[in-house]
Amino acid sequence: MYDVEAVARVDLVRTLRELGLDLDQVREVLRRQTTLADVAAEHVRALDAEIRTLKVRRAVLRSVAQRRSSTEEMKIMHKMAKLSAAERQRLIDEFVDKVFEGCRPDHPGASIAQGMRMLPSELPDDPTPEQVDAWVELAELVADEEFRASCRKMAVTADTDRQPEQPFVNDQAITAAKQALADNVDPASAEARKILDGFVEPAMPAEERRKWADRLDTFTDRRVGRYWELLAILNGWPQRPSSIPEMEWIIAALRASA
Asked: Which end of the chain is more exposed for a tag (fewer CB within 10 A), N or C?
């Protein structure tokens, strides 16, 4: 009743169905409304997207298991990890745009703004729990109004025509503060004042010391440091050592000596 061509068509239908094609797609192939190569290419793209989704889901579940997260935490993690590359980038771009709104394109923070946008176009094919956690934490961070306000204050302060010259050599001050922290020197102690006098002019007036402490405090925020750490995790960048603890010690010492 059936010739060889009919048997071949049935075999092709069975093969296409096993590959996941629906009946409409099979019908189009058989009617030659589309080529088998085109259908196969489309399925490859669909399977690639599904594989990426499954890998992200696996990474989320692995992270949940390791962190012993609650059901609500898992929902948040899964929702954030599933965002498309465009949606992730838009979330970051909206944050950066708000922070640097109205600032001059050539102002000192312009390069910082560009760097703050540097999300990877995609999460890795096989994201680690650390990378999933980093993305979720980053999304929560940029949504935090207090963090946004702190970053905005930094941007506005930096966007001035006259930038005062810092009253000390940064590397020298950081090195001294690092040693002071290692030695557990209280910033309010007499010993701290001696260390401070090593890189800050001893005759600097108290009002000037307070002013500089406030200015340095504006640019010293552990959450901003964490933002760069999270970007490094997501982009596979090497982690840079942070000098925020040292700057916090210098700020406290300046205020104590005022």
From this structure: N
